[in-house]
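INFO  loader      accepted 1 record
INFO  loader      residues=421
INFO  predictor   begin
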Amino acid sequence: MKNLVVFHMESLSNYIYQTEKRHMRALNEMMAKSTSFSHFFSSATSSLMAVTDFLYGNDFELDQIDKFERLQPPMGNQTNLFDLLSEHGYEVLGIGYPQVYKDDLNEFQLWSKESNKFQWVNNYEEFKLQISEFLQAPTTKPKALYVWDLLSHLYYLNGFKLQGTNFHERRSYGYEGIDRTMQHTLGILNATSLSENTVVVGFGDHGDELWTHGLNQGFCHGFEPYSTITWTPAFIYEPGQKPETNDKLVSLVDLRSTILQMLGIQESGSFPYSGINIHEADNEYVYSRNFFANQIDSDYDSSEMNKAYSILNNNFNLIVTKYGMELYEYHLDPTNHCNLLNFFDIDDQGNIMFNDRGATHIHFKRSFFSGQIDFIQANFYMLKEKLLERIRIKNNFITASPCHSFDETNLMKIREKKYRW
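INFO  predictor   done
INFO  writer      dumping tokens
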């Protein structure tokens, strides 16, 4: 049986990766020799939601929770990936550095519903040593390793990161730090026979943004799923494969099914909203969100952290909050600052009509020619219909009381941006 190594790449979006590439040589090499995904999107905007989505292969596991501070164990719509691997005879290890300030992963059984505990290590040399010992230990069983270096998260500091004299330098040291961990782990793999029979997976859980869409009480992620947050690097490496770039839409929740197929493990039963095996099916669109389905809107005290859902296809990102809808062409506008719906009016039936807002310059006319307007409208109507369908599924999934469902009439209004018309 094949072995598995997973790299959880903390706080790494494509937007950040492009600015930090020079500090991430190990990742660069893995992206170059693997199947890398150009349109991979995280299903969440925060780490704990992302790791749960990955392990369970769906984004419904925590949807009964009404406040982030009141976490509960996952519902178990599907078996946790590493529990399932353990059941199939794998030796498993989940290990992270540094020690988290609040161990929700173990306390609420997000990592495992069994006795298996996620190991947090507060000393970096010990962290590397435990990775080495696990991979090098003689055994007849296949191995599965989950590596999560948190140093790139804004909260965490160590002596390596504190070499930076300003925020930019410290951030770069953080990403260089998680790349050192990848380099070390791959070095151990390559020094053993495991490298010949190991699937290696890496994914960014979310990005960070410096308050360009609002102060959000100072949070740099966890708010609306703009593509600066959810569009992340990801790769899958299998020995003997030909390197390629996969341009299809892939969601974080798809990795579990894909990994199981690559490991030759069949699962009994299924959950209707689980991710796909990307080797056997394609996504027409993918989803993301920042809150649990039952989480109270503006959950954090004195903040405007808005409950939000999004849907993406190959061109557009449609987001909805209580303030209405936003539509971004994320290739042309990767930072999601031009809400295209601000150039449309909406009627009480939900139809949108183009309005140039008095823009007469040729730059504007070349951008909004008739075919482009039709293209925007067609994509908007399709994405809106599918997002409404998803929100209704999420609302109906809530069984907790009281129920804090999302108001679907928010899909009948456009979120305003105060341009100087």
